Amino acid sequence: AQKITQTQPGMFVQEKEAVTLDCTYDTSDQSYGLFWYKQPSSGEMIFLIYQGSYDEQNATEGRYSLNFQKARKSANLVISASQLGDSAMYFCAMRERDGSGNTGKLIFGQGTTLQVKP
Amino acid sequence: KAGVTQTPRYLIKTRGQQVTLSCSPISGHRSVSWYQQTPGQGLQFLFEYFSETQRNKGNFPGRFSGRQFSNSRSEMNVSTLELGDSALYLCASSLVPEGGGYGYTFGSGTRLTVV
After folding, report:
1. Which of B55, B88, B102 sits opposite A43 (nearest CB)?
2. Least CA distance to A59: which residue of chain B?
3. Which of A20, A86, A104, B61 is the most buried (most CB within 10 A)?
4. Residue B101 per-residue DSSP state
5. Mutate to test the interface with B, among A41, A103, A108 (most CBs of B within 10 A)
6. Mean model confidence pLDDT for chain A
7. To the nearest whole angstrom, how far is the Cα of A88 from the nearest Cα of chain B?
8. Per-position DSSP letters for chain A, written without gaps between them
């Protein structure tokens, strides 16, 4: 069974500094997709970044980058130059596969609450 | 471009009642999935629909049901509400079920409180 583990329940970072949020995953599939989402207190889940298992380059989107280490099964999110608006819950997720291929089901980790200090 | 719209935003129901939640996906998106989020269990998958067909169902009792209409709008229904059904219900849409590099776009959710 596929599983996502986020071991940091909460983290603090100083404004303008970089922060890394950890995510490890477990799957026996060769083809898989990994996602990071941000959830502010309003509740909406905001898509940040995607990494496919066959992508050779680490994904980047603005201040977000994904440190993908396939052999270690880790997909850490790096936020550069933290801003006060980055304070939120962050979720790592994996798209589940079944016998017939990819599904539209995401398996989420427990999340990491990030607080940015001024 | 309008995002994913979930209605209502907040709902208070009494135990034993039933509730219907609505989700309108982004225009052109044909895949809709639903998740339940609670502090204890985190985010759990409920259903996935594509072109009016349920492709996957999560491990929830039969009191939870859903459907998708020809315009891709989706509804989920919970009958005989229990206190434990209090949660944030999130809907996500995508062009295709696999999501891919575009990810899944979530709505703001419906916060259901059962009293």
Report:
1. B88
2. B101
3. A104
4. G
5. A103
6. 92
7. 14
8. --EEE---SEEEEETTS-EEE--EEE-S-SS-EEEEEEE-TT---EEEEEEETT-SSPPEETTEEEEEETTTTEEEEEE-S--GGG-EEEEEEEEEEETTEEEEEEEE---EEEEEE-
pLDDT tens profile B11-67: 999 999 999 999 999 998 889 999 999 999 999 999 999 889 998 899 999 999 999
Residue B56 is predicted with a pLDDT of 87
Q: What angle do CA B28, B34, B38 make, to 5 degrees?
A: 145
A104 inside 8 A of chain B by CB: yes
Q: What is the pLDDT of residue A28?
A: 87
The tokens for A66 are 């994904």
Q: How far does CA A47 lie from the centroid of its chain?
A: 10
